[in-house]
Every structure is written in C-alpha cells, then in structure tokens.
Write a structure and sequence with these properties.
Layout (H helix, E strand, L loop, with lengths): L6 H42 L3 H16 L5 E2 L6 H20 L14 E4 H12 L10 E2 L4 E5 L4 E4 L8 E11 L2 E10 L17 E10 L2 E9 L21 H31 L4 H16 L5 H16 L5 H28 L1
Antiparallel strand pairs: 1-9, 2-5, 3-4, 4-5, 6-7, 7-8, 8-9
Helix pairs in contact: 1-5, 1-6, 1-8, 2-3, 3-4, 5-7, 6-7
Length: about 350
C-alpha cells in the first residue's frame, strides 16, 4: 500500500528541514565564537605570567654594569666612579649594537678611525638606568689596558678599537618585590672574545648571581643598589642537565589551560547534561553533523585541539535539547553567535584575497 504525503505534510517537512539547517548553522557560529573568546582568554592569561619582555628590558639596562662586575653598593652615589664610567660608555655601546645592529649611523675619528660616541647617547642610557635626575660629568678615564678619551670640542668619547671588554654578560633570571623595592636577580655568565666583537658568548651557565635593587620614582623603576643574591650558582657536580625538565613552550601552556577548562566543565556538568539530553528523546543526527563540521573548522583554523571543540559542542547541544536555557544564556549565545559570524567572515575574506 502506497503512502501518500499531503501537500500540508510536505510543506511541514520542508519547514522542519529549514529549521534544522538554520539551527545547525547557528550552533556552528556559536561554537566558533566560543572558541575565539576562549583562545583570546587563554592568551591573555598566559601573557599575565610571561615576563620575558621585562627580563630582556632589564638585561639591556644592566649589561654595562655586569660587564665590569661592580662591588655591592647602597645608593647610586656610593658606586665606584670608574666602574660607573665604564658601565655608562660600554653599556651604551652594547645597547647600540643590540638595538641598531651596528654603528653605521655614527662617525669615526678621521685619524685613528675610533668610534665617536656622543655624550648625549651616554646620558640617555644612564637616564633609563638611574633616572633623568642623574647627571654624569663627562671626562676621559683610564681602564686596565686602554684609555677612553673624551673630546670636549665634539662632546664625544673616542672608543678604542678592541675585542676584549668586560668579564661577564647578564641574564636576568628572576624579578620580585620586597620592602617596596624591585629585586632583579642577574646571573653572571663569563665571556671571552676571540674576534673583534664586543661580547662573545662562551657559556650559558651563570657562575654567580647578584640582586640589583630598583626603587620607583615618578612611575618608573630606577637602580639604587646592588647586593648579594639569595640565588646561588649550582656546582658542576649537580644533577645532569638531562634530568632537568625543560620549560613548557607557550603553545603547550595554552593547550594545558584549554584542557583544564574543559575538564572542569566535564566534571561539573556532563552527567546532568547527558541525562537531560536523553530525556528529550530527540535524534542526534544534527548534533553528529555539527561535531564533524566543528572538527573540520578546528583542524583548519590554527590546529585547534579537536577534543576540546567536541566536548564543548556536546555540552551546548544537550543543553539546548534539554531546554536548559535561560535569558542569560540566550544573551551569551547571541554574543558568541556575533563573534563567530565575524570570525568566519574574516576567514572567508582572507581566503578570497589570497586566491
């Protein structure tokens, strides 16, 4: 016996398929929005604990002093005068070499071919380290094996051509505050020079540590002292490097945070959500299709962990199927839908421009 579908039933089936397709599209856009927000949040959290740029900033500031291994002091007025001058001139040179890659923008003495370092550059270097109120009286000074001449006419230091300067290079290992002061723990790595470079790396292992003390003035931190560090150098007989765990890469940290977020969601909600979803009696064809689509999106878009995406989709679908939606969730889903739509459009536009 043939079964005939009335026009009304056919129209009703068409409307149902339309609603299912629309629901699938909305679910995909909501999930894309959620993933975008989650990834942005994970990145923001990771950046809160990442002080790499700050460490590098203090390495650049302190390199000149670390080069010449100053004695501990309390108050910048108590630092050895020769050490301060050496640190000011050679620290400035190191900073130029690191930031500009060379001295192409600087003049040389026509007779001796010595580099001419303007005193203004030295003042600018010291202002970042000691504060704008500190003023150095510029003059010539003698080092162990050379003389750094200051030309009053040009207001420039004449830098001797040399390949051996300083005893250590700096590596900042820790930043912490105590009694209103910022402690910058610096590892001293011995250096040797076998060519014409100012600093050559001979090892990556510090042989000692010192704490440089900074105090806050007018919103910035400036050097005011130097003291022995609580951090001590490890002996050569310590545990082999192979047994020391490697630090996690930034991508690994973000993946760990993502997995933790999903685990928390699963522990607190999956049991009740699945029970509610089972009670609805609805088929899961659309949900399964959405999962497949989401996996494709996750793989194409920045290699997102598919397990995280599937778990979140599973939660969303069952919540919606079980009717566990209130006004706050609707507002949140609307926001995620907007973000997801924007993200998808941006990806499509980028793809079109590349073709």
């Amino acid at each position: 016996m043939k079964h005939y579908i009335t026009p009304e039933e056919h129209a009703r089936m068409q409307r149902r398929r339309g609603r299912q397709a629309l629901g699938l599209l909305v679910a995909i856009l909501v999930i894309v929005g959620f993933v975008t927000v989650l990834r942005a949040g994970v990145g923001a959290v990771a950046n809160l604990f990442d002080d790499t740029a700050q460490k590098q900033e203090y390495e650049d500031k302190l390199e000149g002093l670390v080069l010449f291994d100053p004695m501990p002091f309390d108050g910048i007025e108590n630092i050895d005068d020769l050490t301060l001058r050496e640190a000011a001139v050679w620290g400035c040179i190191y900073n130029i070499q690191e930031t500009q890659g060379g001295f192409d923008n600087y003049n040389t003495d026509p007779d001796t071919e010595q580099l001419l370092l303007p005193s203004l550059d030295v003042d600018a270097y010291l202002a970042k380290l000691l504060g704008p109120g500190f003023k150095l009286t510029h003059r010539s000074f003698d080092m162990e094996d050379m003389t750094v001449e200051f030309d009053e006419t040009t207001q420039c230091y004449k830098i001797p051509i040399t390949g051996t300067v300083g005893y250590y290079r700096a590596t900042v290992v820790k930043l912490f505050k105590r009694s209103g002061k910022l402690h910058v723990t610096v590892g001293y790595i011995p250096t040797t020079s076998t060519d014409d470079s100012i600093i050559n790396v001979s090892s990556d292992t510090p042989t000692k540590y010192m704490d440089y003390l900074f105090e806050r003035q007018s919103g910035s931190w400036y050097l005011t002292g130097l003291t022995e560090s609580e951090t001590k150098a490890e002996s050569t007989e310590s545990t082999p490097a192979a047994n020391v765990p490697e630090p996690m890469a930034e991508s690994d940290v973000q993946d760990a945070i993502l997995e933790l977020c999903v685990d928390v969601l699963l522990l607190h909600g999956i049991t009740h959500i699945e029970a509610a979803g089972t009670g609805t009696g609805e088929g899961l064809t659309a949900q399964i299709t959405a999962i497949v689509v989401l996996l494709v999106i996750g793989v194409v878009a920045d290699g997102l962990n598919g397990q995280v995406a599937v778990a979140q989709l599973h939660l969303n679908v069952f919540l919606l199927a079980a009717g566990q939606v209130n006004s706050h969730i609707i507002v949140a889903i609307g926001g995620l839908l907007h973000i997801g739509f924007h993200h998808v459009c941006a990806a499509l536009a980028e793809g079109l421009t590349q073709t």
